[in-house]
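Supplementary Methods S3. Input chains for the assembly prediction are listed below.
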Amino acid sequence: MKAAGLAIACLLLAGAAEAQQLKWNFDKLAARASDSVDVSLEGPLLRLGTSFLSDTDKDQAKIKKLVGGLKGIYVRTFEFKKPGEYSAADVESFRAPLHGPEWQRIVGVHSNEEGETVEVYIRSEAKGIGGLAIIACEPKELTLVNIVGPIDLDSLSELGGQFGIPEVEVDKKK
Amino acid sequence: MASLDDELRSALRRREPSPDFTQRVLARVAAAPVRRAPRVSLAGVRWVAAMAATLLLAAGGLEYRHYQGERAKSQVLLAVRIAGSKLNKAQKKVQMLTHRSIS
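Predicted structure tokens for the full assembly:
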């Protein structure tokens, strides 16, 4: 009986993560990109990965705390051989689901010099931040991040700004 | 020399067994306990095979779980690194612009 209850709870949690996950379509970009990174973690796999993070390593312990309550992490990075391989319309298609009332754009920075744009959106919930979306455009790179669950932005930014996080070997896909 | 030959001949001469010799031998054979080679039961073999298969599966399962965990951990680290770096970049740009506008 308890096992059945646990299974139902897991299914509900997985369903909740899926419901909050942004429905982005990457097919067009994936076809044009020279390289791409795809991280899609939710439910049991996310918990398994988190459980493998060290408690004694300072940086990993911070990350473990940061991602401990998350329901899903989805990151896509597309690299292109030359600038102009993706259009403003492509980017707008990723912005579209973020126009809903639950999403709020908190940062939008653009650099003409470097041709870079970074937009940060948060999903507001009664208890605080319930999700995060980042759209980062560079001339030859487009990165999309969707985090489902409560996230501490300062900790995440701090972890991204330091060199303590080890470089990870990834299988780059065409 | 001749007496040695005689002694040997006498010692090695053919002697007939007693008339009941065959019956006594057969009686001894019948009375002796039968020793059989130890038999390995099929059920035992199956049990050992099942145990070995279970252990092998468990070891393989643990190994695969460990591989999955390490892979998921790498993905968590990569995701945090990418998300954090983009957020950090935006934050720094905002700070820089704020600093510029103040000064």
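The radius of gyration of chain B is 46 Å. Chain B touches chain A through 29 residues (CB under 8 Å).
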